Structures
1.
Amino acid sequence: MLITGLACFSLFAAAPTQLDSSHNPNIQDYLAFPSQSIALLDVDVLDGSGGPALTRQTVVLSNGRISQIGPVATTIVPEHAKQLYLPGHTVIPGLVGMHDHTHMPGQTFLGEVAARLWLASGVTTIQTAGSADFQAELSLTAAIQRGDMPGPTIFPTAPYLTGPDGNGPMHKPETPAQARQLVKDWSAKGATWFKLYRHIQPAIAAAVIDEAHKQGRKVTGHLCSLTFSEAAQMGIDSIEHGLISATDFHPQKSDGQCVSSRQGLAALDIEGEEVAKLIVLLVEKQVTLTSTLAIIESHFAHRPQGEARSLALMSEAWQQAYQRRQRQLKNNASSMPDEVLAKLMAFERRFVQAGGHLVMGPDPGRHVLPGHGNQRGFELLVEAGFSPPQALKIATANAAKTLGQAAQFGQVAIGFNADLVVLKGKLAADARVIRNVELVIKQGQVYDPAKLLEGLQGRFGPQLLQD
């Protein structure tokens, strides 16, 4: 049974439903052990606040929530709690992906395959940032919430909204009235967010934003026909991909026209007045930006591409398509120079330094898989100049705030949901530790990543691809 209407939206704000693994055999198969009362002993804690690591800590979990945090020498552990001694490990909040699709380009809905990989990678919550199969996404959201299958908590996004020149399968309302009706209908079905896509026209975009806010929903956008400035003035809540999708600096852009946002990036003065004015406006209008450096990196031929662990999960046809694309990328004389990526990273640093609210998601596609892309996005934020604690805050607490859940998850704090990840190593000293997932805890249930990954090899991507 699907969750429908406003009840779906409000349900996420309530305390999470605690699942009894003994009544959910599909969940139990993936658990490290069934106990929900746990003490994590002698761990480092990066709490998601952006502050330094707390060392030699005890974290106690009871009834699906964090009940105690304190020094290992002085914290009294309940007798009934299962004690895990974890020196040399770091406990962090579960990652919160803010641009995570339940589909991949050119293929059908990923469903449980993606859900398991997200969870195995330490991603306990996602916002899907555009749906290619809305009903399937709603069904997956409800199935995970009921405990019928493992996966992250999902904030489902309505189908993409674009303009006449946009992609074929997307919705293209012709009038503001049609746009408003779609927002009402999809809100009633369970959409929590709406996404404007590249060719959306200004009048339609304004209607979507206004109606979504009336329905208690939020709007993000992968923009092109709208500049960042125009969308901010309309009241958009969030913008995806950062500077690479901004058409504000294109000299020939006309109203409502989608033009190349990459033209002129190499020559753009990232420290100049034009960029500074845009950042000031975004901060003043409280527009969130979503960093998607994991997928953006794939546009640069000399950057790391195609991790072995991701390729092993792809179908043979998908691997072949990846290899073809890599040959095309390396032979493309017009591909962006690597210094452009440095400018994109610098823009995100400047935005945060100015008081801007930055979140992160991978935008799964090509070889950027769910979960793996979230981890890579964290590593790239550190490469961009954020410290590991700062990058973790972007990937957890900032995202929870954007979802209206700042007091529920996104931090290791007393009273918060027990949505946590246990990593082997010292994350504060080495961003690559984000990949060393030993345990994933979602609402007190302790998952074994190896069990979640079992049987996923070769399941990403269609078996046959058309050239």
2.
Amino acid sequence: MPVIKEKDLMYFENKLYLPMIIKVLEKDLESIDKLPFKLNRPYIKLVEDALKLVHKDLKSADIYLIRKQMQLTKWESTADSTTFAFIYMGTEERHKYLHTEIKTKCEEILYKYFTIN
């Protein structure tokens, strides 16, 4: 069974985490719009800019995975973890992620997108 190269693993993880981050940012946009901020436009712009970057990176990950004939699928989910199947070089590797680990990683990635702006 081949070991997934670090660069390829990065694209798999982008495909895994970025859709979650998109959902979080879209819900945040709705919340910001409904809350009584005195100046909500700067917050909306910050989230929209981050959202654009996330969409761009997700598209890049999608293209990379297609070109390299790699796939990511959700295998099974339990109350505390989710297992994903990574199809890589004709073989399947399963990786189990704890939900707390996923949440922590999403927070780390969000910090990066907010500091890029």
3.
Amino acid sequence: MTGIVFHATERRDAVVGFYRDRLAATVRLEQPDCTILEFDGFLFGFCERAEADDCGILTFVYPDRDGVDAARDRLGDAVVEEPRANETYDIYQCFAEDPEGRTVECQAFLDDDVDIE
């Protein structure tokens, strides 16, 4: 069983391109006004609408710090917060913004015993 999180977008091509090119998401399904993307089992979609929604955080989980650092490199000028350890949650994370201003987080759990799959 799985789920999909959808977001309204005014700039579908730019937003889909951002997640494909910078975070290596793949297109899972194209529909008339929506694109569903996948990143390691995480399904999320963007539907063309009159107004974009930019609330929430899209979090991409990597197996280790190296994965977060590589994502940071691919995100380039979209990064708004460089990678750092967050002791509160025992994670390593960085933040970026997509073309419409949605918050994008790349993180890795530092505790090897954490398994969210």
